[in-house]
């Protein structure tokens, strides 16, 4: 990873999701379900859901990153895990903010494989080292990405205490 930073703003994110949706539509892919990888993929899935007129959104909670460049050894699915029967024979679009190592996307893609009619991946960013090469990518980069939803520290601690501004 380079020391360079890719800075995504909320206005640019809106443009990115619309362009990503247009790429998917131009390809003729019409997903039945958008499966969001939480947390960053929630924003992408919501935008794609509106742009592609898909109301059936599901969430897969996966923990992998623990900090900047720090990860668990392998990604872990957190409950509640979607029931594969809800995905059966559907065209599923897996949405996430970034395909960095690709391990999270691979976990979710493999979870769907064999149960769905078709599974494809859409991300805002894809890095060259990603194990998964996504069908739909807005931009490719090797830089660390500062996403607008995660660049600022939390406003509360997990115990509910408000942090000083």
TrEMBL record:
<feature type="domain" description="Phosphoribosyltransferase">
    <location>
        <begin position="11"/>
        <end position="152"/>
    </location>
</feature>
<dbReference type="InterPro" id="IPR000836">
    <property type="entry name" value="PRTase_dom"/>
</dbReference>
<keyword id="KW-0328">Glycosyltransferase</keyword>
<keyword id="KW-0808">Transferase</keyword>
<protein>
    <submittedName>
        <fullName>Phosphoribosyltransferase</fullName>
    </submittedName>
</protein>
<dbReference type="Pfam" id="PF00156">
    <property type="entry name" value="Pribosyltran"/>
</dbReference>
<dbReference type="InterPro" id="IPR029057">
    <property type="entry name" value="PRTase-like"/>
</dbReference>
<dbReference type="GO" id="GO:0016757">
    <property type="term" value="F:glycosyltransferase activity"/>
</dbReference>
């Amino acid at each position: 990873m380079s020391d360079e930073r890719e800075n995504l703003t909320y206005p640019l994110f809106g443009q990115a999701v619309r362009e990503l949706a247009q790429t998917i539509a131009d390809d003729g892919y019409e997903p039945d379900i958008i499966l969001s990888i939480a947390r960053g993929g929630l924003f992408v899935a919501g935008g794609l859901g509106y742009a592609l007129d898909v109301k059936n959104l599901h969430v897969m909670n996966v923990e992998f990153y623990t900090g900047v460049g720090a990860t668990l050894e392998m990604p872990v699915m957190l409950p509640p895990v979607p029931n594969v029967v809800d995905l059966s024979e559907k065209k599923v679009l897996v949405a996430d903010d970034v395909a960095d190592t690709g391990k999270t996307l691979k976990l979710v893609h493999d979870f769907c494989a064999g149960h769905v009619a078709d599974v494809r991946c859409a991300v805002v960013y894809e890095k060259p080292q990603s194990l998964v090469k996504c069908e739909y990518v807005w931009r490719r980069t090797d830089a660390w990405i500062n996403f607008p939803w995660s660049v600022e520290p939390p406003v509360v601690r997990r115990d509910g205490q408000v942090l000083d501004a």
